[in-house]
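Appendix B. Chain record.
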Amino acid sequence: MIGKTLDGQYRLDELIGVGGMANVYRAQDLVHDRTVAVKVLREESLNNDELVRRFKNESKAISILNHPNIVKVYDVSTSGGVYYIVMEYVEGITLKEYLRRRGQPLTWREAVHFTCQILRALEHAHENGVVHRDIKPQNIMLMADGSVKIMDFGIARLSRSECQTMTDKAIGSVHYISPEQAKGDVTDAKADIYSVGVTLYEMLSGRLPFEADSIVSVAMKQIQDTPQPLTQLNPDIPAGLADITCRAMAKDPAQRYPSAAQMLADIERFKENPSIRFDTPPADATARNENVVNQTKKGGTQPQGGAQKGKTPAHKKRPKKHSIVIPVMLGMALAFALGSAFLCYQIFATSENILFSKKPDVDLVDFVGMTREEVEGNKQYSQDFTLVFEEEYNKNYEVGVIYEQTPRPPKEVKQGQTVTLKVSKGVEYVEVPNVDTLTRDSAQQKMKEVGLNISIRPDRESSAAMNTVTRTDPVAGTQVARGDTVILYIAQPKIETEREVPTITGLSLGDATKALSAANLLLGTATEEYSTTVPEGTIISQSIQPGTKVKMRTKIDYTISLGKPPVTLRLDSDPATYFVGERTTFTATVTGAKAEDVKWDINGTTGSGATFTVQWPKEGNYTVRAEVGGTTAEITITVQKSTKPTPTPT
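Structure tokens predicted for this chain:
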């Protein structure tokens, strides 16, 4: 794939990541002249319907998100022979790698700094109906400036449109999944809250909360076990921050933070006052709830004890006839009094009285994610609330699932409070209209009329009129969900992929860079050499001749001048001994300059050239100096009287 250009726009330059279903490449966006990351579904995965579904799911999920802490998406293609997602190119390391390099727990301030950014990203995702479901340090990138970006929405889903079990993801994820994911139950945004809690736990303690020999054992621990308290592992962790982590990792989703925003709010309160404490869910909350239910079933009003029946004493006198009236009247009075007391109790003491008692406060239930059938089947809900159901189409939720309620928890409301619940009617399907040959604006209007969104993709191979629609994906006539995105291919000029090499010989390095950049070419490898004719810092030659046609971003190698070479000068003399009246020739050995340019000076006697000959007039010390190109060499010699015998006259 390296070197291949996708849709005439994205040139794949380097493989930078390999995943379970796709490869990630560093690529060049030829249209916008920027470096991007392209995630390409591997060819062998195209025949796997589940992997294709997950890839399309990821592209759909992240294409609707736009947040500084989420990797930005520029383009998506899920049709044709190659499925790919174009994202911003992020340079950094994963949080997991950062923890590994540190080799010890992070400070609580650093952990809070990262967690706040993760929660802000999830708040944005959840508000747009996207649940990530695979939050873990491996999917969080750290930038050099300390910011983080969440990536890999491979098993994200749009709200509650589907259910996923732990077997869908790689082994590494089981250490971070929520108990409901481990059990294969329906998940919502609270599953992400749990995973954030595990990640925060790992940052603060330097270890995972649950580890075992197999993924099944880890999953069971996620469901059943309680992690070791953070303050036992690291006494330096503030108790309030441990409380926040504990609540985020509650086994029961109802005991966790209802939203990323509320967890973030508690962390902000903690940052303002690190000594603050928060309520945490009890470890045995589920057990205690079950005990209460069992006791209620077994209990009830116990019968009141009465006087035991006894035999009438034999010696008791037979009552007189008129004495019967008094007990009867007393009995009637007692019955009336008891009945009145019971009636008063019912009126004034029971909570069901609607005339005289004040309605009690009840906790508002979070109905989002439940089905209408579940809600209507729970008598307690109908006793506590006046429920109003409104059914609407919603492609992100299955039929019958509640996706919105008014008012929203958490809050206490009066018993009988009206709660409006919006129930999904599922997907509403519409037909993709035929917009071929239309302009972009006209095509967009037709799509809008049937409730479809559009994404624009350039078509640089078509001969159709510029800026008109050449085709759509899916094609016209296809049944799709209302609200889906249809790709419009718009006729655009072909991209000129070749560039003419400019002349950079004779230019400075800065000017050469500008000239090549203007031609969308790059400076290549430099070779340095000395030159007696080309000034220092000036390009002497280039690897590709000017006027040659090359591909964009081709590297042009060059040779640059170091300026004039350094001069070396060495003096030699012949002969090596010096006597009055004799002649001596000095020779200059030069590199980096011309020998004929050497200037000589011997005690005021001057000359020039590669050699200099002198006849010694008298004995004494002499300084022989030579200079060329600013470099000087000198020697000091001693001239002696001649020791040669005086010739005998003949």
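Further analysis of this model is presented in Appendix C.
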